[in-house]
Amino acid sequence: MVKESTYYDLLGVGPGASESELKSAYKKGALKHHPDKNAHNPAAADKFKEISHAYEVLSDPQKRQIYDQYGAEGLEQGGAGGGMAAEDLFAQFFGGGGGAFGGMFGGGMRETGPKKARTIHHVHKVSLEDIYKGKVSKLALQKSVICPACDGRGGKEGAVRTCTGCNGVGMKTMMRQMGPMIQRFQTICPDCQGECEIIRDKDRCKRCSGKKTVVERKVLHVHVDKGVKTGHKVDFRGDGDQAPGMLPGDVQFEIEQKPHSRFQRKDDDLFYQAEIDLLTALAGGQIHIEHLDDRWLTVTVEPGEVISPGEIKMIRGQGMPSMRHHDFGNLYIQFDVKFPSAMFNTPERIAQLEEILPPRKQFAPPPADAMIDDFNLEPVDQSGQRRAQGATSMDEDEEDGVPHGAERMQCASQ
Prior knowledge:
By secondary structure, the protein is an alpha+beta fold. It is built from nine helices and 15 strands. The strands form six sheets. Strands 10-11-15-14 form a four-stranded mixed beta sheet. It has a three-stranded mixed beta sheet with strand order 1-9-8.
């Protein structure tokens, strides 16, 4: 029978709670009421201090005995009412420095708090059709969770003890003499293999084999918004790996757009390569384009609207949906004019074309005394075409006689 149960009530446990039950209750309450997680709730800071003070008393066997017999008044009379600050106790319990709550108030709080488990990163490849229409993807992943059989202890209650070889650090400082010099270096503790704790094989948890976590399959619903771009990240807070004494990690999916067979995309605009015959380019006609939402666009080239090879036209509002402005980009169509084969040019048809088409361009003749050589054009294979295209691009880069990649020298006026 205890004199008062206020401290037990703060932690949500009974007077007969074991050491592990006290730890678990403190961890749950401290994380829930930590000031960094409740910046707009001043009452949470007071609750956090009360929970921390209650755990500090009840986790000390001597203080707990005094409290059970004489209550909080007995602790004050016995000189045990002070204790450490709530933040210091939190840091000692979880480990400080770079935690999830550190530095949120710009220096008002010290960088203390529980560390966070690693973030799971995945690349989610999405088709252009799904980005155009939007979709919800169901993605399964494997993650580590606290073993439910041992509550993350790794073994039976009371069987897990701190390694005495490294004092729970996981590393040992060793010394080695090299001639007249003594070298100091750190190595993984050979007693606990860096685990900081010792568990006898017979006491290990049968489900997790002492690893404290087990692998679990989880299905997440990833919302792919209309018009999302490559590199966009979708975060699931707290759905990542779990580890004892740490905040759950996150899961992050990065959107990557798959290449498309018909369209190319730049921001909110689409680009389409349309092949038309010479007759359509000169006299008009229609082409049909299958869009990304199963619609077909019928595009009319008006008679008399001459389309040149490589010319680009636009259809307004038929590009990609925009995430920011809730409208659509444009669809740009580049025309590749397909000329008829050489067999088309019979003498009769050539004569007809000369009557219909504008006259040939007249070039200035060479001087009367010039030496003239006559040549005929020859077809070029694919290798020759690549060489010719490469030379053309080099000429464009080497403007002003400066090769591509070379530095340009400028004179600075004094």
